Amino acid sequence: xxxxxxxxxxxxxxxAAMSGLISSRKIHIGMDEAWLLGRGRYLNINxxxxxxxxxxxxxxxxxxxxxxxxYTCYIWGDMLMSAYLENSIVQLPENVIxxxxxxSPIGTKETNKEIETYQKLSPKxxxxxxxxxxxxxxxxxxxxSFASLKEQIISCKKHGIDNFLVTAxxxxxxx
Length: 175
What we know:
By secondary structure, the chain is of the alpha/beta class. The protein has helices at 5-21, 40-46, 51-68, 78-85, 108-121, 142-158, and strands at 26-30, 72-76, 96-102, 127-131, 164-167. The model has no long low-confidence stretch (mean pLDDT 89). The protein has six helices and five strands, in the order αβααβαβαβαβ. Strands 1-2-3-4-5 form a five-stranded parallel sheet, covered by helices on one side. Strand 2, helix 4 (78-85) and strand 3 form a beta-alpha-beta unit. 46% of the residues lie in helices and 15% in strands. The longest helix is centred in the middle third of the chain and has 18 residues, at 51-68.
C-alpha cells in the first residue's frame, strides 16, 4: 500500500536486518508487473493518481531507505519501459539500476534497439537478465535458450553491459 508509512517502516526494518546479515550492498527490489498499481484500497484512500507518479514516489521512498544502508537497488525494467511507451518517463533515483529482461530470441538487431532505448531511460547503467526457456514444460529447451542467450550476450557486450544474469522461470504450473 504505497504511501502507508507502515510499509516504509517494514522495508526499513527488512533492509536493516539484511544489512547486518550480508556483506553485499546490492539488492533487487522488484517493481515489476505492477499493472494494478493505484487500484483497490490505494484508490479508495488516495483517489485516482497516475501510475507513473505512484511508482516514482514508491521507488524514491524505497531507494532512500536503501541509501541509508548503502545499497544499490536493482529493479525489473518492464514497468519503466511501459511508462516510456506511454510517453511517461519514470525518473530513476541515482542508486537504482534496471534489469532488462528478455526470455526469448528477438534478433540481435532488435535486442540492440531495446538496449539503446533503455540506455536513454537509465544513463547510470543497466543490467540484463536472459532466460533459460522452460515455461512450456518441466525441462529447459536448450536450443531455444542458447539461441536467445547468444544474441543477448552479443548485444550486452556491444553496449558495455557486464551485469548479466541467467534466469529460469516457469509458468502454468510447470515449476
